[in-house]
Structure formats: C-alpha cells, structure tokens
Design brief:
The protein is an all-beta fold. About 0% of the residues lie in helices and about 45% in strands. The radius of gyration is 19 Å and the shape is globular. It starts with a strand and ends in a 12-residue tail after the last strand.
Length: about 280
Amino acid sequence: FLDMPDQSVDTLLNGHRGMGILPDGNVVASLSNGSVYLFNYKTREVINKTVVEGGGGRPGVDSEGFIYQMNGVFATQVDILDPADLTVYNSVTGISAGVTRCMEVSPDGKHVFIASQSGGAHHYYSEDGVDGTYAIVDTILKSVMVDTLEKATATNLVQWHPSGLLWVATFEDTPPTFMYALDPDQDFAVVDSLKGIPWWGNTDKTDTTGTGYAKPQYLRAVRDAYFNAEGNEFYAADFYGYTIKKFKFSPGTSIQPGQDSKTVPDVFTLYHNYPNPFNPET
C-alpha cells in the first residue's frame, strides 16, 4: 500500500512489470496499465506518479537518477523521465524489439540495452547521454553457438552485476546456457556464463502443473533478477515457472585476464525450495 500525496491510498496490484532503485534509495515501480510510481523506500509515501502511454516495462535508472521507461511490452520507444517531476526529459525512439519486458542503462546514461524477443539485446548509444540523440549501434548476443548450432537468442533479461558486468538471460529455446556475462570494457565480450540449470526446453514438456505450465524446478524465461550488494546472490523471477528462484555463488572466484577490477564468480548453486508459510504449497 502506498500513501499518495493527496492522502489517498494506492496499490501496486495492476500487473507489476518491475522496479528500479534511484541513487538516493527511492524506488520507481512500473505497472502494466502505464502507471509509474516514484516512492520513498522508507515510508512508502509516493513522491510522484505519472502514466506512460502503452503500458510499462521494467525501468532502468542511471547514476543521476533519470528513469528510463519503456512504453509497453511491445516497446516502440523509451521515455527518459526527470526524477524531479517525472516529466519526459528525452526519448529513445525507433525501437522494434518484439516482446520485451526488461531493459538496462549504463550509469553514465550513454548506453541503453533493451531485451528482445526478436533476438539479442538491442544496444543504443548517445555520446551526450540524456542530452543527446540515441541510435542503435549493435544487437548483443543476436546469435550464439548452442550444441554446434547457431540459434537466435530470445533475450528476456539484461541486468548489471555489482562488479560492472552485464548479465543477459536467454529463453528456454537456447539450452544449455542460461545467462551470459558481458564485459563493457571488452566491447561486451562474453566473459562468463551460467549453465547446467534444469531447463524446461531440455524436457519432453510433459512434467507440468495442473494448468499446463512448467513445474517450479525448471527454468523457462527469467524476466527479472536482482543481485545483492556483494554480488554473491541473486533472485530470478521465472515468468512461466511462476517462481522466484534464489541462486548463490559457490566459494571461490576467478579474475578475467586484464580485468583485475572485475571478480567473476565460478559457479551458481540452486538451493531447494522453501515451504510457503501462508499456505500448504511450496
């Protein structure tokens, strides 16, 4: 429940699409009906609210607090909102990524990444950041080598790791790799990956719930994720698996050659699910 400036109470129950954290710790939340809330993370008081035409998607936030908000699941542009009043400061236009629910932005605001069902993460660049004009410069991981076959990668997640690497997650059609770590200092080259997760695409797809979806032990399409501050744990929201899965890095790290500032974990471990204290299911 959120306390609105006019003393009314609002909720975040209308198709939640994702959240972003501003440098001051306050939270921006985007809903499917286009509502965007900026609220105080301590008191849940709404600082400001706006509506984005076309519905929302998970927003990105740069180091200045500018909010990068997609205009829906079939995004055609990203509006850059001024944190002072949530008015549109600038826009990234000309987007054609198919279904997309997730995006990221570099801290300096020069690089914008949009997850794409059409394959890869669309990379837009502006030399002057929020004050310039953004143009597409690349499609990252448009194709990858999977079991000796080159297949298009439907991207569902782009997320910064505290080390400065950009993690990109794929859809179930591209096993065995679940996530790739890209190094912006090496022109977004792949420097690490996560494999070996129980991947729905590797099964005969008969092990389902009563409603025909994958059981929780499988991964299908990670639509959002969040790393902790230390970077040794992350939580993945699996869209078709209807679960939030907690991953933890195993002890031990490796340093990529020439990238001493980036500590890249070796292995992820998926822990057993926990009982739900509010009902008898897990």
